[in-house]
Amino acid sequence: MVVKTGNLTLEIPVQITSYRLFIDQCLEFAIENSSLGNDFKRTAKFKLAIMELLTNAMKHCKVVSYIDIQCYPDKVVVKKIDSGQRFTFKDVDTDQHYDFPIDPFTEPSKINARLGNNYTLFINIKTKNQIEFLEPPVIDYLSIDEVPENFGLMIIKQCCDTFHYNYNKVLSQNIFEVIFKL
């Protein structure tokens, strides 16, 4: 754990034996360094987003990853950083496959992206290295068997104000960035 004024970085091992330790450290730091703790609902959403980022780290990246929290007067920024497999998706309408960096990148565009076998989510392709996850439509699953593989992305988006994926080509890093406005 590395703590600087307004900044916390936690190393997340490939296998996590206790979510609670990480969630508690993140929450304690955010409460001590921002006004996030003044709102019970925001605090609960923050904890849920941290839990989903930890699940993503364990389930998808298969390498040591990091949770980085930065507190500012107007927001709390949480980043999950790893050097595992890059995030990919397909455009539902055109069946075009996207990988990062997106080449050729022409202009920002919103698409309905297929993220797994049975899951789509609206995204905004902002740059060749960044997408923003958009608010999903109302979803009604009749069975737990219908819950998609990438359901955690939707949970995170519903918990926060802004949710991005960035690919840092120079460092070969995946960065999921979650922003909570205060």
Short structural description:
It comes from Pedobacter psychrophilus. The chain is α+β, with helices and mostly antiparallel strands. The protein has helices at residues 19-33, 40-61, 151-159; strands spanning 2-4, 7-12, 65-71, 75-82, 89-91, 97-98, 109-114, 120-127, 130-133, 162-168, 173-181.
Structure description:
The chain is α+β, with helices and mostly antiparallel strands and 182 residues long. The chain folds into two domains: 2-82; 89-165, no CATH class. It has three helices and eleven strands. It has helices spanning 19-33, 40-61, 151-159; strands at residues 2-4, 7-12, 65-71, 75-82, 89-91, 97-98, 109-114, 120-127, 130-133, 162-168, 173-181. An eleven-stranded antiparallel sheet has the order 1-2-3-4-11-10-9-8-7-5-6, with helices on one face. Helix 1 (19-33) crosses helix 2 and helix 2 (40-61) packs antiparallel against helix 3. The chain is globular and about 45 Å long. The model has no long low-confidence stretch (mean pLDDT 89).
List keywords for this structure.
globular, 2 domains, alpha+beta, eleven-stranded antiparallel β-sheet
How would you classify the helix and strand content by structural class? alpha+beta
> Biggest sheet, open or closed, and with what strands and sense?
11 strands, antiparallel
- Helix content estimate: 25-40%
Count of helical segments? 3
- The strand count comes to 11
What is the string of SSEs from the N terminus onward? EEHHEEEEEEEHEE
- pLDDT averaged over residues: 89
Strand content: 25-35%
Distance between the termini: 25 Å
Instruction: Choose one word for the global shape.
Output: globular
Count structural domains: 2
User: Rg, please?
Assistant: 16 Å
Order of strands across the widest beta sheet?
1-2-3-4-11-10-9-8-7-5-6
What are the low-pLDDT stretches, counting only 5+ consecutive residues below 50? Answer: none
